[in-house]
Amino acid sequence: MTVLSVNVNKIALLRNSRGRDFPSVIEFAKRVIGLGVKGITVHPRPDERHITRRDIRELTSFLADYPGVEFNIEGYPSEDFMELVLNAKPDQCTLVPDAPDQLTSDHGWDISAHESLLSNVLGRLRDADIRSSIFLDPDVEMVERVPSVGADRIELYTESYAQAFGGESQDAVLEKYRAAALRASQLGLGLNAGHDLDLANLGEFLTIPSILEVSIGHALIVESLHQGVDKVIARYLALCAEAA
Exactly one of 43, 50, 155, 213 is catalytic; which is it? Predict the structure, then answer.
């Protein structure tokens, strides 16, 4: 079964906007784990605009009590990031080719242009017994380069699929992902996926076999707001009515 790893960045972003621990990243993680989630993902940025170094330490300690739940830290492999990861020792580290000020991930690695960097970083992760994954576009040629740098898994960057979903190009785009996934499997690489997957498009994407993990954050939080708002508003209205 595919593991759902919930990205809790948006919870940290909401918390940081008010300056106190509400909503709590730890309490949210605890709640979704109680609902059956088997993975927690964070993507710390250099400016700590959402997940902070303190969050990493607290999640590392918290998840030690949940051995069946995987911790995935993703980000660009700067020296600061690598120090954070090597100290936390998560189950998985996903390398993403983001600029320091980038709003969100928007492309996969060009392995040929970053082979030396990736080989070095992936070797350090391997020595620390941390499973590695690298963010890739659905490009068979790029997938074939992965063994040369030594990653354990790839994470297919799924924004192009999400954009095509429901349109005329959906099937053609999905076939690119199938081809990339098949080649990864043939090479013995594990398969993850993420970015803009949601309740509407995830089922179709998971017709691709052997997807081990999907990482979902933004859409999951927005959908939770939409689908929970009726119940919350009703409770507020009831409290106001009682006061009257």
Answer: 43
Helix (H) or strand (E) holding 133: strand 131-136
What secondary structure letter does DSSP report for 113? G
Of 70, 74, 155, 213, which residue is the catalytic one? 74
> Rounded to an integer, what distance in angstroms lies between the CA atom of residue 22 and that of residue 28?
10
Among residues 50, 70, 155, 195, the one annotated as catalytic is: 195
Catalytic annotation present for 74: yes
Q: Count how many domains the chain has.
A: 1
Nearest-angstrom CA–CA distance, 57 and 54: 5
Which CATH number belongs to the domain containing residue 68 in this structure?
3.20.20.70
Total count of residues recorded for the chain:
244
Alpha helices, H only, the chain:
9-16, 25-34, 53-63, 79-88, 115-127, 140-143, 146-149, 159-164, 170-186, 202-205, 218-243
* Residue 177 contacts residue 201 (beta carbons within 8 Å): no
**Structure pTM?**
0.94
Per the CB < 8 A criterion, the answer to whether 66 and 26 are in contact is no
Annotation marks residue 195 as catalytic: yes
How does pLDDT run across 40-81, given as a tens digit for each residue?
A: 999 999 999 999 999 999 999 999 999 999 999 999 999 999
The question of whether 43 is a catalytic residue gets the answer: yes
Query: Whole domain around residue 162: which residue ranges?
Result: 3-243
